[in-house]
Amino acid sequence: MSMSAKVKWDGDVRFQGTTGSGFDLTLDGELKQGPRPMELMLIGLGGCTSYDVLGILKKTRQDVVDCVAEIEAERADAVPAVFTKIHVKFVVSGRGLNEKKVERAVKLSAEQYCSASIMLEKGGVEISHSFEIVEVE
User: Fold this and answer.
1) What distances in angstroms separate CA 134 from CA 53, 82, 112, one per listed residue?
2) Which CATH number does the domain 1-35 belong to among 2.20.25, 1.10.10, 1.10.150, 1.10.287?
3) Longest C-alpha distance within the chain, in Å?
4) Mean pLDDT over residues 89-110, rounded?
5) By three-state DSSP, how is residue 104 classified?
6) Can you give the pTM of this predicted structure?
7) Which CATH architecture has domain 37-135?
8) Rounded distance, CA 136 to CA 95, Å?
9) Domain boundary assignment for the chain
10) Which residue spans within the chain are E strands per DSSP?
11) Strand 5-9 relative to strand 83-95: parallel, antiparallel, unpaired?
């Protein structure tokens, strides 16, 4: 399976990115006209692992109504300012959610399914996960 993307300079420290699937976005290094590239890496990680967690929970017939991945990261103080630690906290809302099934979904995503998490860990990033369940009516 291959993927592609294109990034074109748009002046100053701004770039226009186009995904192989046809989506456009603005990236910005410091002018606040779009997300920074490293922020997009965190969004990508959050999207990848959330996709897994929700898919696993649906297969186990959990009544999920919302799922938010809150991501905090630390970067090295030196250049290159790589990520050193990332923590992903899932806030899963639903009706009668089984804590063991949520825990298992988070663990499976982290250890077996999330390509982004596994790739970053192999690159030396310490990644941790937690979750919170919110009961809704």
Assistant:
1) 16, 33, 25
2) 2.20.25
3) 51
4) 98
5) helix
6) 0.93
7) 2-Layer Sandwich (3.30)
8) 6
9) 1-35, 37-135
10) 5-9, 14-19, 24-28, 63-75, 83-95, 126-135
11) unpaired
Of the CA atoms within 13 Å of residue 42, those in its CB half-sphere come to: 20
The token pair that represents 99 in the structure block: 């804590």
For the chain, give the number of residues.
Answer: 137
Q: 33 is written with which tokens?
A: 């006209």
pLDDT at 2: 95
Work out the average pLDDT over 118-135. 97
| Six-digit token string for 130 | 């937690």
63 φ/ψ angles, rounded to the nearest 5 degrees: -90, 75
Q: Are 83 and 120 within 8 A, CB to CB?
A: yes
